[in-house]
Amino acid sequence: MNEPPNTVCPSSTCRPGAKLFGIVLPDGHVALTSECIEVDREFAQIAHEGRPPEQRFRFASGCMEGACRQWTGKQCGLIDRLVAEHERQLGEVIPPVSLPECPIRPECRWYSQRGAQACSVCSVVVTDMALSDAALPREVALRRAHYRERTGISSEKSTPHSPSKARGSQ
């Protein structure tokens, strides 16, 4: 698939500038919004009270590529692992005949990489923010710091692209 010029990661964190595009339902599935909602500072601050916002919502933001622990050197390894795990536990990922409306699909890293297979597993992914930057390999932490410096992203509450887990397929 062709990669869009401004690729976004669909497993990002709640921070100003991120796009909220899904709501995690009580059963663990993600209901997509009809349009992205840009997260502002006030929303991010309120959302961080109580349970982590990544357990309640799905966020997208610019793909960090080499500054992300999921980057394999040429693509996102997370979506490949999620599809492989689904296939291991439940069998082949069979994309639906028609895909649900998704406000980030045209720029989604996972969709550009795996097509409809990514959409099939995306609805059960809830970002797990349990790991901090301290758990990163040194070279990834350095690339991430450089990325934050370049983009002006604060390190406070912005550990984007921590491993995600596919809920409901464990």
Cα gyration radius (Å): 15 Å
Number of self-contained structural domains: 1
Strand residues, percent: 15-25%
Count of helix runs: 5
Order of helices and strands: EEEHEHHHEHE
Describe the structure.
With 170 residues, the chain is an alpha+beta fold. The chain has one domain (8-157). Helix content is 28%, strand content 17%. The protein is built from 5 helices and 6 strands. The protein has helices at residues 41-47, 77-90, 109-114, 116-122, 138-151, and strands at 8-9, 19-24, 30-38, 57-62, 125-127, 164-166. Strands 1-4-2-3 form a 4-stranded antiparallel beta sheet, with no helix packed on it. The longest helix is centred in the middle third of the chain and has 14 residues, at 77-90. The protein starts with 7 loop residues before the first strand and ends with a strand.
Characteristics of this structure?
170 residues; alpha+beta; 5 helices; 6 strands; 17% strand; globular
Topology:
Blueprint: E1 8-9, E2 19-24, E3 30-38, H1 41-47, E4 57-62, H2 77-90, H3 109-114, H4 116-122, E5 125-127, H5 138-151, E6 164-166
State the gist of this model:
This protein has 170 residues and is an alpha+beta fold.
